[in-house]
Design brief:
41% helix; 2 domains; 7-stranded antiparallel beta sheet; single chain; 6 helices
Length: 167
């Protein structure tokens, strides 16, 4: 069985900010091979990261094949740190426990109203975390409300999938 990366483990390195998608404002940093190897997985890894002296932000190291991981650096973070493609940045991160999710109260209220709390909590941790991160990152109230509705839909799909498996 694969071993999950050790939650709480801290890493830091310096690297060049790369343009990840031609024609798009999408930048990423390659995680050094030594760190990727020590993570012990070729899959995504949830982390709390910081670029230079930025505010900490939750993100996943994403695998790109060949045992390599990258970490996406959002425009908001680049603006905060006044960095751009080609700049060297110091990146530090702490591995988080994917199963240790914090549920926003407005999401829990919506799930309870639909009787879907346990269905949502049965969604695999990585997918759940992605949904929760999208909700947390919403800037406008209407966007947050829309993303909570998407979470409700995901819980409905999970309920249907589990019911199908029980038949």
């Amino acid at each position: 069985m694969k071993q999950a990366p050790l939650a709480g483990k801290k890493y830091a390195f310096t690297a060049k900010l790369e343009n990840w998608a031609e024609g798009m404002d999408y930048c990423a940093v390659q995680v050094p091979a030594k760190i990727t190897t020590s993570l012990g997985t070729k899959g995504p890894v949830l982390v709390m990261a910081q670029v230079n002296d930025s505010e900490p932000f939750k993100v996943s190291l994403f695998p790109v094949g060949g045992g390599k991981h990258y970490i996406r650096i959002k425009a908001k973070v680049r603006k905060e740190t006044k960095t751009k493609t080609g700049d060297k940045v110091t990146l530090s991160f702490t591995v988080l426990d994917r199963a240790n999710n914090v549920y926003p109260s407005d999401l829990l209220t919506a799930l309870r109203a639909e009787g879907l709390t346990e269905d949502f909590k049965s969604i695999p941790p990585g997918e759940q975390n992605f949904i929760l991160r999208k909700i947390d990152e919403a800037v406008k109230p209407q966007t947050r409300k829309k993303r909570i509705q998407e979470a409700i839909q995901a819980a409905h799909r999970r309920r249907e999938k589990l019911a199908d498996q029980d038949r």
